[in-house]
Amino acid sequence: MQLIRWIQSYIIPSLEKISMWLEDMIDLSASTQAILYGPYLLAGLTTDDWDIKIGLATSFSHWITPILASHNSRLDSLSQESGSSSFVFSNSNQSITMEKLQEAGTDAALHATVRLIPKYATSLKVMSPKEAIGKSVMLEPIDLPGMVVVQQGTNGNLGIANSESSRGSFSFRLVAGLDGKGETISMESESQKGCYAYSGPNYNSGTSINLFHANAVRQVSFTPVH
């Protein structure tokens, strides 16, 4: 009798707790899946939104879009020197700012990496900055695929929007750097002729990039870093 009372008092309640915990884990695992590519576990880049919304899709191929290997071979950052520090053109909460250059592999380095996609090409071939001189391009942040840098009028800050959105203008014409240095480029608005992506004088981390009429050649010239 004593053994039965001990089982009723200690073992059965513990088993009930374990059962409830297993049910919770089953509910969780039903909505949590890993994606393997051969022996490799795929990891996604995300900010804030941790859930993949697959809608009515029934197959991975319906909600995962492969990125061509050629796209990853042409990733660049756009840098400037200010004082004794290097700054880079970065995506910061859907706005474009200048941030201090960080080590490769960090989140900050990802936010400062873009692809140059030609606007009028028949394919989505990714170009190097030198190949893009004289051409109209869109800038796609690597951490926000399908989104592009958007202009919001003269003196307006640059931001991020879906390339199919009607908000602002997406196209820049790349030209050789207005500072006359062989390694730099400048980005002229295609819709606002004579206006360039501009960082401003004596800036710090977090300074917004805007569209400005070119009267300061250094602040509209960027050095591509591959």
What would the keywords be for this entry?
226 residues, alpha+beta, five-stranded antiparallel β-sheet, 4 helices, 15 strands, globular
Give an account of the 3D structure.
The chain is an alpha+beta fold and 226 residues long. It has helices spanning 2-30, 60-63, 69-72, 107-111; strands at 36-37, 40-41, 77-82, 85-92, 95-100, 114-118, 136-141, 147-150, 159-162, 172-176, 185-189, 195-198, 207-208, 210-213, 223-225. A five-stranded antiparallel β-sheet has the order 13-5-4-3-15. It has a four-stranded antiparallel β-sheet with strand order 6-7-10-11, with no helix packed on it. Strand 8 and strand 9 (159-162) form a beta hairpin. The chain is globular. It starts with a helix and ends with a strand.
